[in-house]
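Quick one: GlxA family transcriptional regulator from Streptomyces platensis, structure tokens please.
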Amino acid sequence: MEPRDVLVVLFDGLQSLDLTGPVEVFDGANHGAPGAYRIRTASLDGGPVRTSSGLTLTPDLALTDTAPPHTLLVPGGEGTGHPDPRLIDWLRTHAPRARRKVSVCSGALLLAEAGLLDGRRATTHWMLCDTLAERFPAVRVEPEPIYVRDGDLATSAGVTAGIDLALALVEEDLGRDLALTIARHLVVFLRRPGNQTQFSAQLAAQTAQRRPLRDVQQWITDNPAADLSVDALAARALLSPRHFARAFREETGMTPGRYVDRVRLEAARRCLEDTTDGIGQVARRCGYGTPEAMRRAFLRVLGASPAEYRRRFQPASPPVPTP
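--- reply ---
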């Protein structure tokens, strides 16, 4: 089997975890399938780069000396804010020759700057999605998924999402069993569905400014199985249902119903991850009432049933490392 060349672009100010997370996944694949990936790093001139945390990385070669890779990986970091124009020129000219273009976090900004995301679906870290959409209106930005696949292009959110995406690529290349082995070895979940939201309901919603609405948000989180209808929540806030619904949306960016849906889903996920309680018990505890109602919610948002979600998450004995 010919190795798949993975070329990682290095530049000053990159975030080291955006690089090391995916690289550890591809390297892990080589333990189960020797020679599956040939991983190399390259900077503009072949010289060392300094990461945003102060680490110095020495690349294998210069970008000008590289051949078109199978997978081109562009990490993110502070350095994407003011990139070297030569790097953008190199990406514009050479990145299209790669069979797969992959970005982690704000690395999507570099691909967009080079015109590689025009007309394509893409994501980045949730804090930068508005920036990506405003600076590059030709990009179809999807702010919620942890990663987005669009043909030969794959973009991901923050650090851990890069690991999720790399696991998905290994599964595509070499099969689920090997990807699962890598995930177990790294003690991560194989694999969070790409359409899983990047952040919790508390983070996704801007925290309400008014104390009564903040108190209601906390009540929802603490009591997912309670009556969380608009009427009940409005009564807790001492507002009319109409006034409450309007104020809640203005201050949090989502309707009360959508917020409740997210909180309940997150509560159910935590129960499935952290306990051995039965599906029916989890459904009742988290406000779904019936297992079928919870199942529909999981399929709609995560693309997996509660039982499948639990099977994917449950840890197993780690494999014996290959000498």
